[in-house]
Amino acid sequence: MTEFDTPRWIPLDERSLDPDPFVQFERWWEEAVAVVREPEAICLATADASGQPRARMVLLRGRDERGFSIYTNYLSRKGEDLAENPRASLLWYVEPLGRQVRIEGSVEQVSAAESDDYFAARPRGHQLGAHASHQSQPIESRSALEDAVVEQERRFADADVPRPEHWGGYRIVPTSFEFWQHREDRIHDRVLYAPAEGGGWDRHRHQP
Ligand SMILES: Cc1cc2nc3c(=O)[nH]c(=O)nc-3n(C[C@H](O)[C@H](O)[C@H](O)COP(=O)(O)O)c2cc1C
User: Fold this and answer.
1) Dihedral sign for Cα atoms in the order 204, 89, 96, 118
2) Which residue's alpha carbon is nearest to atom 1 within ligand 1?
3) Looking at the domain assignment, is residue 11 inside a domain?
4) 51: domain CATH number?
5) What is the pLDDT along the chain (208 residues), one digit of tens a residue?
6) Is 14 helix (H, G, I), strand (E, B) or coil?
7) Number of domains present in the structure of the chain
8) Which atom of ligand 1 is nearest to the CA of 46?
9) What separation, in Å, do the N-terminal and C-terminal C-alpha atoms of the chain show?
10) pTM higher than 0.90, yes or no?
11) Whose C-alpha lies nearest to ligand 1, atom 6?
């Protein structure tokens, strides 16, 4: 048995959960960081105007009281979906702890200044890739993509790489959270948070 095989299923008791789901998420985040190689990996689901859902993994790069932010190409398929329908769902799974968090909400672009700061802190190869890759568009070959990167290397030789206008962050502003805990007896725990009238959040247990 490795440390990753050892179940750490801690029953979920709505009374012990923080009244603020953002704080509760941070608690689970800290526990996940100890046991997961890449806790930032999270599934982002969008839907276009016709209602066609589309899910993909992204990296969760920002977590604060305003919401949860990810970075991408605004002209990508997800960017098109979000332009048509600025709503999304995030799904975070922490296998060793038997936990799932589902977040639903509206989506906004983060400020240009925040995107600039994040982009400036990325490795140069990622920055060049953001210029070279027309994310979600077809390309005839891998070598055409590599040529596009070389072209950007030449373009920005000996210079800082600026953030492309079409690249930046989205913030998912939650309207609901669900915390799900695996239980050995398979009667799993689910606690949902919804906005309370007059501010704050209500917590409800749901059936598994
Ligand atoms: C673990 C993991 C993390 C990823 N992180 C990102 C990310 O932060 N931003 C991003 O644009 N794509 C990321 N991707 C790639 C996306 O899953 C997806 O292929 C890409 O964003 C294009 O999606 P779209 O065509 O729906 O826009 C990641 C993929 C994996 C497997």
Assistant:
1) negative
2) 41
3) no
4) 2.30.110.10
5) 455 555 578 889 888 899 999 999 999 999 999 999 999 999 999 999 999 999 999 999 999 999 999 999 999 999 999 999 999 999 999 999 999 999 999 999 999 999 999 999 999 999 999 999 999 999 999 999 999 999 999 999 999 999 999 999 999 999 999 999 999 888 999 999 999 999 999 999 999 9
6) coil
7) 1
8) 26
9) 29
10) yes
11) 58
